Amino acid sequence: MRMGNEYAVERTMGRTESGKCQSKTHKTYRGTLTLWIAAFIMIAGLSIALGSNLVSAHDKSEQPEQKFYKSIEIKEGDTLWGIAKEYRGDDFDSIYDYIDEVMSINGLTSDQIHAGQYLTVAYYDTQAR
Questions:
Q1: Which one in 24, 30, 54, 121 has a CA-CA gap of 20 to 30 Å to 62?
Q2: Is residue 110 domain-resident?
Q3: How many domains does the chain contain in total?
Q4: pTM of structure
Q5: 77 and 103 within one domain
């Protein structure tokens, strides 16, 4: 005659005393999951660490140009065209655009300027002149 406890013992053989499952499939799944989580954390950490050191499009020693303004005194023979040639640089599309800006800044309605007059001119550079 068989006792009913024999089957109960066989069914619980795959568990530890604490009742946790110790099957080979469960251990493999848990190990694989742990590896994936560890790999994800390492990749995320490396991405953050290396991403902050990416090379920028600008040389670090090269400072970006900024717009500055300067007051100049008009001398005999000066023209807006000559002033534009001296201060315009490559940041304005055309010399005409630069002259229009100088006229606008100074409230000029014509291109007539006179010796002794002061004008504010705009220019782009890495530092003020």
A1: 121
A2: yes
A3: 2
A4: 0.51
A5: yes
Please give the residue range of the domain that contains residue 21.
6-51
Do 40 and 72 share a domain, yes or no? no
Contact 47, 108 (CB under 8 A): no
The tens digit of pLDDT for each residue in 71-128 reads 999 999 999 999 999 998 888 889 999 999 999 999 999 989 999 999 999 988 888 8
3-state helix, strand, coil in the chain (%, to 5): 45, 15, 45
**Alpha helices (H) in 52-107, listed in sequence order:** 80-87, 95-106
Alpha-carbon span 44 to 1, nearest angstrom: 63
Which residues, other chains included, contact 119 with Cβ-Cβ below 8 Å and sequence gap of 6+?
A: 71, 72, 74, 83, 102, 105, 106, 113
pLDDT in tens, 17-70: 666 666 667 677 777 888 899 888 988 888 887 776 665 555 566 778 889 999
Q: Are 66 and 125 in contact (CB under 8 A)?
A: yes
